[in-house]
Design a protein that fits this description.
Layout lengths: L1 E8 L3 H4 L2 H20 L3 E6 L7 E4 L6 E4 L8 E9 L3 H10 L7 E6 L4 H8 L4
Length: about 130
Amino acid sequence: MRCMLLIVEPPGQRAARTEAEGREAYARMQRFGQSLRERGKLVEVASLAGLSSAVRVYTGGGRPQVLDGPFAEAKEMVGGFFLVDCASFDEAVALAHECPAAEWATVEVRPVAACFEESIGRAQGLS
């Protein structure tokens, strides 16, 4: 079972750290990723740039819109993720408990799900 461990953090948190604090947080996350890799659990890992480099695209209502970041209303942002392969959802939750980021952010655990077409096909007995 594949699950995403999403690191959900306050938008200004990274900038508020000293350089030493940032380096230590990064080193701890690197060690955690290496541990997952050594246990055969890690599929992919990445850190995401802050909201100042993001854009939001919306095409509903027939008129495309692009909103440049940072987003004043944002109370949190996805700062990165670990895609893990586990025997169960409970195992993924246990890995989230090990993640150092759980000390300064929320680690959201979400199973990777089939896309709409695949889930409809299974429900209709087509796959």
